[in-house]
Each structure stands twice: as C-alpha cells, then as structure tokens.
Amino acid sequence: MASAAIQPYELYSDAPGFLLNKPEWEEANAAHPETFDFGKQPRGWPVKFTGPDVWTGDYLEKNSELYIKVLSHGEISEIDSAIKASLLASTLGSETVDSIKEPGEEFAISKSSITHLDPSQRGKIYVSAQDTNAQMYHSDAGGDIVGLMAVSLTGTGGISTVASAGQVYNHLVQHRPDIARLLAERKFRWRANGIPEDGVRLIHNQDNKVFLNFSTRTFIGYGELPDRDRDYPPLTFEEREAFGGWQWVAEQYSLKTQLEVGDIEWVNNLHHQHARRGFTEDISNPRHLLRVWLADSEHSPRLPADIKNKFDAMFESDPDFYPLDEIEEDQKRRETGVFTGSNANDH
User: Fold this and answer.
1) For a designed S-S bond to 137, which of 46, 227, 271, 275 qualifies (C-beta 3.0 to 4.6 A apart)?
2) Annotated region Disordered: where (predicted)?
3) Model pTM greater than 0.85?
4) 263-285 burial by CB neighbour count: b if 16+ within 10 A, else e?
5) Please, what are the domains in the chain?
6) How far apart are CA 49 and CA 142, in angstroms?
C-alpha cells in the first residue's frame, strides 16, 4: 500500500489562510520597505541573550554529547531495578512488574516510572492531537519540562524539533524588533484557568533569560476545542505576522531529532518551544508517544507572574487519570468533561 504524501513543512499551517506558512511569512516580511525603521528591542530588555539556553540546531548537531545521553547496559539495569523496586512497593503486584519487558502498556508503565521517581508535581497526562498533521512551534500548557517517550513509531516522518527562545529573540531584535516588542509588551487574552481577564504577555525577560509559555492554538482552537472563543477578538494581521515571524525564525534555528522506540526526550518548556513534522503510520500499529508535564517545586526557577499563575492553576489538584491511548483518554473525557484545550476549566 502506497504511503500518503506528507506536506512539506514550510507549506504547513495550524490554521491555513490565517496563521502564516513560510512563503506567506516571507511575503509579509518582504512587503516592508528595506529602509523601514522597526524600532528597538522591548523596553528594559537586552539586545542579546547569552548562556546555555541560547543555541542553534546546527551547533548542537555538531556537539551531540551536549544533549544526547546513551545509557549503558549497567545504567539500564540499575534503572530497571529501581523501577521494579518502586512498583513492587506500590499497588502493582509482582506479576505485573515481571511482565514489564516489551513495548506496549507494560513498557509505558516501566519507562514512565523514571519520571515518577523525581518530580514533586505532575500534571494530568493527555494523549491529545491524535492526527498525523505537523505542528507549529508551541509551548505545552503546563509544566517546566515536557517529557516525550516513544512507545511505538511506525510509518515515516514525525521528526521532533526544538528551538531556543533566546536564539529566536536575538534574531528578531536584529531583524524585526517590532515582533519582539509586540510579544513582550502586548497582553493577549483567552479563557483558561490562571489567565486574568486583561490577559498576559507571551514572552518575559527575567534573570537574564527568556521565559515563555504560549501556543497559537489558544487563539484558533485545536483538537477537542476546534473553534476560536468568540468572546475575544480575532488576531490582527500585525499579531498574525508576529506569530509567523516567531514560528519561522524558530524553525530556522531548530534542532531536529528522529526519535526511536525507547527514546525519552526532555524539553525545557520555559525557555524552548517544540514542534513536529507530519507523519504517516500503520493504522494496525499506530504511532504512540506518551507525554508528561513536570514541575519540581524545589528546583524550579522563579517564574514570571503570568506563567506562575497559569501553572499554579494547572497543578493545584492531583491528576486523577493517566490514559495510555486515545481510546481510553476519549472515554474518560466523555465521563469527566475534562478537556486538554487551553487548560479549560474542569467541570
């Protein structure tokens, strides 16, 4: 059976005709006269950020030891022993623990237990976005760290990409400082736990770092909440151009990774954004990445108030279910009314 064609990423948009794909962004950017004065960086912000959170994909690809850890057989055995000891001390029986050998539900329980041993707070796990389309650059709704575990990878495509917010900012200040100002100074509004009525700023300068936590899906609807909230005005062209600039500069400097089954990818959700290429899959053995949102109250950095309020609302109650596939998630969603979109109010 022939594989379905995967749309080139530069032609992709989460909202075609509204959010700009790469050619549309380039056209909008080129429409400004060469001598146009875009002004300076946001008030109180530096011209350039530096530090370990500021990098380019090209640099990391040439220095893979900075971000890839390949576990030795001894380390794997040590982790497995710790996981089994932890699970035996829980409500799981010894038969369940002994069965943790192959990909699937047992594999997911075992490997996700690495996550459970350390962080002091965990958000609800959702297995959302059950489509094969690409994704534009975004922050996940909650947590300092996003963890992705590759349980099953069939078909082609699906490359994971990550971009440094500091690097994106540095480029924009040099070429389009008006975009940096808009995202740093304008307040954006949407309906969600922890978001005040007057809105929040989307990027923040704190402790010599760029902090951020936003997704354009908030303004267009996505997945379980496909329609934009009509109580708030649609994005202006200026705002859409700004999001287009952020998106395609992020792609320019991104790190691209083809995950393999068993890989666990950790993404700093405070200083980076991530995206994904479109993919095909074997419907009899669909692609499955398990996601967790993590926050550690002891080691988390001091957060900008806009982000802290949002995270506090998300982590204020313990998660009550951990779906391992979209069928279980959808069933539980029908029973509870809990949606993933924009951290909507739980009822």
Assistant:
1) 275
2) 328-347
3) no
4) bbbebebbbbbbbbbbbbbeeee
5) 51-67+121-340 (3.60.130)
6) 24
